[in-house]
Amino acid sequence: MQLSLLQGVLKTVRAGIIVIDADQRIVFWNQWVEQHSQLPADGMQGKPFSEVFPDMVDGRTHVAIRAALENNFASLLSQTLNKAPFPLYANPGDAANSVRMQQAVHVMPLEVANLPRHCVVQITDVSMAVAREKKLRDLATELESQTLVDVLTGIANRRRFDLHLDDEFRRAKRNGTPLSLIMIDVDYFKDYNDNYGHQHGDQCLVQIAGALSSVLNRSCDLVARYGGEEFTVVLPETNEDGAMQIAEAMRAEVEALNIEHARSGVANFVTVSLGVSTVVPEHLSKTGSLIHAADRALYQAKRSGRNCVVMYTDVKKKAE
Amino acid sequence: MFQLTELQHDALVEIFNLGVGRAAAAMSRIVDEEVTMSVPMISFQSRAEVAKTLGSREGRRISAVAQHFEGAFNTEAFLMFPEEKSLEIVRLMVGQSFSLEELSEMEQEAMSEIGNIILNSCMGSFANAAGKELKGSLPTYLAGTGDDILGTSGKEWDGVVLTLKIDFNIERHHIYGYVAFLLDMPALHDLQCYIDDYLAKLMG
Q1: Considering only alpha carbons, which residue of chain B is nearest residue A102?
Q2: What is the rounded distance in angstroms from the CA atom of residue A210 to the CA atom of residue A219?
Q3: Quick check: B134 and A79 CB within 8 A?
Q4: In this structure, CATH architecture of domain A2-127
Q5: Does residue A229 carry a catalytic annotation?
Q6: Phi-psi region of A312 (alpha: psi -120 to 50; beta: other; left: phi over 0)
Q7: CA-wise closest residue to A204 among A216, A218, A215, A194
Q8: How many domains does chain B have?
Q9: Lowest mean pLDDT among A21-35, A132-146, A252-266, B35-49
């Protein structure tokens, strides 16, 4: 009576149960495993684990089974670090497409009267939790993109820059005033990271952001982190000369930080290259052309030996 | 506080270094990237001292993975990292950034697995050296101050805590954490006997 009750429970339970003996042979698996592996339990009885799951040999689950049988240790295999170790499928459609069910696996030693130790492998379907967290992650990313401050440096982020540039561009168009843009890139920053590590790389960016900000004192000027090691500055009502002066002051300010950089190709401290562009926006002009021009000037600054400022009009003159 | 002889101390450091070395190899296989771990020092402290080291007074939050071991001797084992460090470890292991300042449910499970690997390897190495068997439970994830986790405010307890400082390296990030074993007097006595047996075997 009691045995049939237990068998009923194993049959009904919404989790996979596999029992393995001391010789790593399958003793039993429940109906849930049958249903999701599409392999009948009867045919598996007595077969070695390595024969039934050849692609799992010496993998994390196999190691955990050995730890349970030999050392009496229980193990947890999270979905996050192991994805889907067993060839189990939510439904026949997924099986046909080889899309495995997301699994959390527990491996536990099991004492059996008069026999060497066995182990129980319990498999849970965590697809729902995975989907829930993906939604949460997406939401968090979306929220992050809606904030306006760069998390690392505390200055404006890319989104704030885009909004600010749009506003100032419209204003300049209306008033017929010049608008300048500076694009800034840290020289040999990848080598800096490789040499000093990412934590120092982050600190370096924070210091540079501070140095760049210190040069500006009008409330309509904005320095933003454009991405990675790139910064950008929006200077409304500023002509070429004014923008060049500010760019040069920023270059000097970063140099004055005197941050050691043994792998820089230009100096033994951290430097930046700067590209400047200025427009008096006309009726049909777009912000994209201003950014593109500053980018071209920055590219030219890189080619001219770095740690310098280049104005876009000079790039254009040379090309002509 | 309780002290081991220099020889016993060195043997234990060696045993645990072997253990975390194996754990690091297992973790490297998971992330397909080099993970290294070492135990630079071990010490015996009271629960209150350990909690103080973990910044309990300042209310510093710790995330921990706990497991119970019994057999050759009985102990509660903990892997502990400051909460922000555990975020760093899990996210480095998983290779995904997540802006939440707490471990999500799935991340907690991943942290439990990491703790499970490290604690099983440490105890496995010890059991192996002692030639004894220890039964290990499944891991449990805990978060709170060191006091909350080690339960110092709870019942009277006369034991000591064996703490291992763990130096964890992944993707050029260096992270320090702690493994702690709560040992009551009989467990401490057993532990000492096993180390002596191990040393006697080594000396032939």
Answers
A1: B106
A2: 16
A3: no
A4: 2-Layer Sandwich (3.30)
A5: yes
A6: alpha
A7: A194
A8: 1
A9: A132-146
Give ipTM to 2 decimals. Answer: 0.89
Q: Give the pair of three-digit tokens for residue A235.
A: 């200077």
Q: Strand A222-227: give its sheet, edge to edge.
A: A222-227, A230-236, A179-186, A272-279, A309-311
Domain range enclosing B154: 6-203
Residues B44-95 pLDDT 10s: 998 888 988 888 888 899 999 999 999 988 999 999 998 888 888 888 887 7
Out of B107, B116, B135, whose CB is closest to A72? B135
Say if residues B163 and B90 touch (Cβ distance below 8 Å): no
Tokens 């960016």 correspond to A205
Residues 150-209 of A with CB under 8 A from B: 151, 197-199
In a domain, residue B113? The reply is yes
A144-319: which CATH topology? Alpha-Beta Plaits (3.30.70)
* B1 in any annotated domain: no
Domain boundaries of chain A, sorted by first residue = 2-127, 144-319
CATH number at residue B182: 3.40.1550.10
The mean predicted confidence, pLDDT, of chain A is: 92
Q: Would residue B134 count as lying in a domain?
A: yes
- 3 state SS of A166: helix
- What is the rounded distance in angstroms from the CA atom of residue A278 to the CA atom of residue A180? 4
Each residue of A223-247: pLDDT tens digit?
999 999 999 999 999 999 999 999 9
Contact status, residue B29 vs residue A60, Cβ threshold 8 Å: yes
Six-digit token string for B120:
């099983």
Residue A219: which H helix or E strand, with range? none
> Which value, in Å, is the radius of gyration of the alpha carbons in chain A?
31
Where does residue B31 rank: exposed (0-12), middle (13-18), buried (19+ CB within 10 A)?
Answer: middle
User: For residue A259, what pLDDT is reported?
Assistant: 95
Given CB atoms, is B144 within the 8 Å cutoff of chain A? no
**Residue B179 near residue B166, CB atoms below 8 Å:** yes
Instruction: For residue B124, give the nearest of A71, A76, A140 by CB distance.
Output: A71
CB contact under 8 A, A141 and B99: yes
Residues B176-186, mean pLDDT to the nearest whole number: 91
